[in-house]
Specification:
Blueprint (H helix, E strand, L loop, with lengths): L1 E5 L14 H13 L5 E3 L2 E8 L2 E8 L6 H12 L6 E7 L7 E4 L8 H10 L5 E6 L9 H5 L5 H24 L1 H8 L1
Parallel strand pairs: 1-4, 1-5, 5-7
Antiparallel strand pairs: 2-3, 3-4, 6-7
Helix pairs in contact: 1-5, 2-3, 5-6
Length: 185
């Protein structure tokens, strides 16, 4: 079983923003596999379903980005899983728009959602897929940038990236993280 967490902010005003790239991937994955978000648990909305023969729990924290770890901690405890059974999808300003990077573990790299998860579950040992949202322009405030929407040129690139991220998740679940890293990094 895997807990697959997309990071983002829950209010409608944050839909389609750079910071909600994780939510976009989770929504696309839910649509692909017919998984309904029909439960509210762990300070999140969740959906349970299958990818191949593997049970998955899709999680969209409702805590806002900076407290995402509370949802992850609750889900791990409830399902009695280890951090190795978690896949977290989130935005990354250090990657060009639309690039994805898969890692088996690593530091928070300045991302507050990941910092929260690491703080709550006491480990950096969880799978992650970073979605590039592009470097912040010099004249922009970081918060304003990550809460901005993609421009027209970037929209198609992000649609492709979220589809690729879904394929990477499927590969992790079916064939392991090593195969996914070899195929998508």
């Amino acid at each position: 079983m895997y807990i697959i967490v997309g990071l983002g902010n829950p209010d409608a005003k944050y839909e389609k923003t750079r910071h909600n790239a994780g939510f976009e991937v989770i929504d696309k994955l839910a649509n692909t596999y017919g998984i309904d978000f029909n439960k509210k648990k762990f300070k999140a909305i969740i959906g349970e379903g299958m990818i191949g023969s593997e049970k998955v729990i899709l999680v969209k924290p409702t805590t806002y980005m900076n407290l995402s770890g509370e949802s992850v901690e609750g889900a791990i405890g409830f399902y009695k899983l280890t951090s190795e059974n978690i896949i977290v999808i989130y935005d990354d300003i250090s990657l060009d728009v639309g690039k994805i990077r898969i890692r088996e573990r690593g530091s928070a790299g300045g991302h507050n959602g990941i910092k929260s998860i690491v703080s709550c579950i006491k480990t950096e040992n969880f799978k992650r897929i970073r979605i590039g949202i592009g470097k912040k322009p010099e004249e922009w405030d970081l918060a304003d940038y990550v809460l901005s929407q993609f421009n027209k040129d970037e929209e198609e690139i992000i649609i492709t990236a979220t589809t690729t991220a879904c394929e990477a998740i499927e590969t992790i679940v079916r064939d392991g993280i090593g195969n996914a890293m070899n195929r998508f990094n």
